[in-house]
Amino acid sequence: MLTLFHHPFSPASRFVRLILTEYGAKSELVIERPWERRREFLLLNPAGSVPVLQENDGPPVCGVFAIMEYLDETRGYAVGNRRLMPDHPDARAETRRLVDWAVNKLDQEVVGPFVRERVYKQEMPNSSGGGAPDSTALRAARANIRHHMRYFGYLAASRNWLAGSRLGFADFAVAAELSCADYLGEVPWEDEQNVKTWYARIKSRPSFRPLLSEKVRGMPPAASYEDLDF
Amino acid sequence: MLTLFHHPFSPASRFVRLILTEYGAKSELVIERPWERRREFLLLNPAGSVPVLQENDGPPVCGVFAIMEYLDETRGYAVGNRRLMPDHPDARAETRRLVDWAVNKLDQEVVGPFVRERVYKQEMPNSSGGGAPDSTALRAARANIRHHMRYFGYLAASRNWLAGSRLGFADFAVAAELSCADYLGEVPWEDEQNVKTWYARIKSRPSFRPLLSEKVRGMPPAASYEDLDF
Q1: Fold designation for B89-213
Q2: Disulfide-capable partner of A156 in A198, B119, B149, B157 (CB 3.0 to 4.6 Å)?
Q3: Among A36, A4, A23, A15, which residue's Cα sits nearest to residue A180?
Q4: Could you tell me which residue ranges the GST N-terminal domain spans (chains A, B) (predicted)?
Q5: Can you tell me the mean pLDDT for B117-132?
Q6: CA distance B217 to chain A (A)
Q7: pLDDT digits (tens, 9 = 90+) for A98-131
Q8: Which CATH number is associated with domain A2-82?
Q9: Which H or E element spans position B52?
Q10: CB of A73 within 8 A of CB of A61?
Q11: Structural contact between residues A141 and A185, judged by C-beta atoms closer than 8 angstroms
């Protein structure tokens, strides 16, 4: 039995939910609000961040890098050609580079600020940093996303999937990040048709459905968020 | 033939230099100043960051996560029991959690600000963000390092090495980060004797020697930096 401690709007948690489903690994989902610094959760992950995966009463697997590799090491063989990590070391390096790009660079420069300013700050009490969004941070994120979209557009135009010829972890990591920005209507899809086409292919996978049906209270998603032909 | 694009004061680059030596993988070192955004380097790594490893004319391996796994996948078998990644998926997850802690959390909250404010800003032209250190950022880093030291002290007291019973990637990732702060005299070693003892063991390894002999122009290291019995 797998338990995933996550937050619905944490892009890294979304990535893990997607790949758990792709690997056919059923898990119980527990919502964690990292800013509450719940004691039992800090014992699992002293970093205090989501996602954290736990198998039965085993040791916690903390963070996307550890979880992605753990999932592939423990279930990769069983999923056969639906495996999301390629075999060759060069291709594995390219997959990891793009996952790192998504969960660190894209997250820090774009999606993290969007989610923090527009979602978390509404949920958090003022004592934990809640309050009105910082318009300077939002402006920077809106400028930065264009550079990232251009790069993903280049990748999508020159490859079948982002990291190479086959669907892989990198596609889900980037899509998970973009899905959070998309909920908020912050993705300039029309600038990059190749990214839009690639995202439409990912978004139509059954693993994406649970994410698309979730709503933030008092904040309906952008018009095209659930639409598979956006 | 391996080529490593690095910066002497990039903690992540230091981590890679250490593990390359530990794996007996000789490499040519090329110093890269990421803020120069050199065109040929951006073609290798569009993220513009170090470290980047290249094997012969093969595709670049970008970032610590990709490089660490690549090194273990391509050379791990050959080093036998000196391998720095354990075999069991649970232990691998713990190794990756702590590497992630070092190169992301410790770097963002502590070592990154120290290096940026006290080293990079001296090297950078003003047009790239150079100038005087930001004392608020330094104060925050000095407060944050105490929390990290306490946590590493807990790990060092309860385990033989940071991630478990054997020396591994996590030890080198944390030591590489701390070595940059130590050069600047910013590590409160006396607060945590267990961390000090652990670091003395790592620091005395031959792989650490090249790092200890490097100097930043116009900025001598703290008195105990090179001292193995500090």
Answers
A1: Glutathione S-transferase Yfyf (Class Pi); Chain A, domain 2 (1.20.1050)
A2: A198
A3: A15
A4: 1-79
A5: 91
A6: 30
A7: 999 999 999 999 999 999 999 999 889 998 889 9
A8: 3.40.30.10
A9: strand B52-55
A10: no
A11: no
Tell me the C-alpha distance between A46 and A44, whole Å. Answer: 6
Structure token pair of residue B129: 């963000």
Q: Locate B213 and state its tokens.
A: 């002999």
d(CA A153, CA A213): 27
Answer yes or no: same fold for A2-82 and A89-213: no
Long-range contacts of A120-125 (CB under 8 A, 24+ apart): A120/A9, A120/A35, A122/A218, A122/A219, A123/A33, A124/A35
CB B63 within 8 A of CB A97: yes
Domain definitions of chain B by residue range: 2-82, 89-213
Q: What type of residue is A19? A: I
Give the closest-approach CA distance of B150 to chain A in angstroms: 12
Contact between A61 and B97 using a beta-carbon 8 Å cutoff: yes
Q: Are A67 and A25 in contact (CB under 8 A)?
A: no
8 Å CB contact of B93 and A66: yes
Residue identified by tokens 């490893």 is B53
Which residues, in sequence order, are bridge partners of residue B6? B31
Write out the H or E segment, with its range, that includes residue B54: strand B52-55
Separation in Å, CA of A62 to nearest CA in chain B: 6
Q: DSSP assignment of A152-191, as one string?
A: HHHHHHHSSBTTBSS--HHHHHHHHHHHHHHHTT---GGG
Q: Alpha-carbon distance A26 to A15, whole Å?
A: 15
| Closest-CA residue to B158 (of B169, B150, B147, B168) | B150
Given this model, what pLDDT does residue A230 score?
A: 85
| Partners of residue B89 in chain A, C-beta under 8 Å | 70, 73-74
The letter for the amino acid at B143 is A
| Kind plus residue range of the DSSP H or E element containing A30 | strand A27-31
Kindly give, in sequence order, each residue whose CB lies less than 8 Å from that of residue A66, ignoring residues fewer than 6 positions away: B92, B93, B94, B96, B97, B100
Please give the residue of chain B at the shortest CA–CA distance from A95. Answer: B66
The B-side interface with A (CB below 8 A) comprises: 46-47, 58-59, 61-63, 65-67, 69-70, 73-74, 89-90, 92-94, 96-97, 99-101, 104-105, 151
What tokens were used for A193? 């048709």
ipTM of the complex: 0.96
Summarize pLDDT for B71-81 with one digit per residue, the tens: 999 999 999 99
Does position A76 have pLDDT exceeding 90, yes or no?
yes
Compare CB distances from A100 to B63, B89, B151 and report the shortest one's residue: B63
| First-residue to last-residue Cα distance in chain A | 36
